Amino acid sequence: MDFVGIEKLSLVDYDGKISCILFAKGCNFLCPFCHNSELVLGKINSFIPFEDILNYLKSRKNVLDAVVISGGEPTLMDDLKDKIIQIKKLGFLIKLDTNGTRFEVLQDLINSNLVDYVAMDVKNDLNSYQLTINKNDFDLTDVIKSINLLLENRVDYEFRTTLVKEFHNEESIINMAKMLKGAKRLYLQKFISSENCFNKNLHPIEKEVSLHYVKILSDYIDQVELRGY
Ligand code: SF4
Fold it and tell me: Which residue's C-alpha comes closest to atom 7 of ligand 1?
């Protein structure tokens, strides 16, 4: 399957790197606060021929450092590994954005040295996870395995959580802190409502409260920062 979107140049998606972002279609979560609802629901069918992407990357080898593989959920792409191999051959760093639900894909990419940075969403504590992703019966085994894999520190990574008033509270943050104990980095992202969200009646958590959460999490995690506040 080909990618359905490309942001040709980004200065903010891979810290310290100039990157190009590729967007995969579809996701196995339905996070009510998702900004990419059209991608998640698979409504976008204008695939970009991978050959065109490779040609673009070749022409920007002197400008770009990295390629960010995002979505949707890119690990659902059946030929993701093959595509990353081809991009890597051009000399680019690879950042993978993932929800961690395909542990074996993530493990294989890490074992094969095909990713340089992983940004994994950790949506909430386990008690509230299914509510937060809007999938009542979702089996979280792979999410937990992916968290533990990243905690092994074999690849540079960050966890990230979008704080939403309707889903997060002090109790869920404390549980999450315990679940991520020993982690290197966690970003707490500000929720910003938009027309593209599945649920348009959600609210961000105030900065003051978010800073309190940073304090709680910092007892368990090396680097905890707010993003977008
Ligand atoms: S995991 Fe990411 S792409 Fe998928 S629904 Fe949630 S926010 Fe959207």
Answer: 34
Over pLDDT 90: what percentage of the chain?
A: 93
Alpha helices in 117-206 (DSSP H): 129-133, 141-151, 170-179
CA 116 to centroid of ligand 1, rounded, Å: 22
Torsional sign, CA 189, 190, 191, 193: negative
**Measured from the CB, is residue 72 less than 6 Å from ligand 1?**
yes
The closest-lying atom of ligand 1 relative to the alpha carbon of residue 99 is 1
User: Side-chain half-sphere of 152: how many Cα atoms within 13 Å?
Assistant: 10
Two tokens at 185? 């980095």
At residue 175, what is the residue type?
N
- The domains of the chain, with CATH numbers, are 5-227 (3.20.20.70)
What is the length of the chain? Answer: 229
Average pLDDT across the chain, whole number: 96
CB 167 within 8 A of CB 204: no
- Please report which confidence band the pLDDT of residue 36 belongs to, taking 50, 70 and 90 as the band edges: confident
Look up the pTM and report it: 0.97
Confidence of residue 40 (pLDDT cuts 50, 70, 90): confident
**Residue for token pair 């290197």:** 184
Confirm or reject: Cβ of 99 under 6 Å from ligand 1: yes
pLDDT of residue 39: 84
Residue 74 CB burial class (10 angstroms; 0-12, 13-18, ≥19):
buried
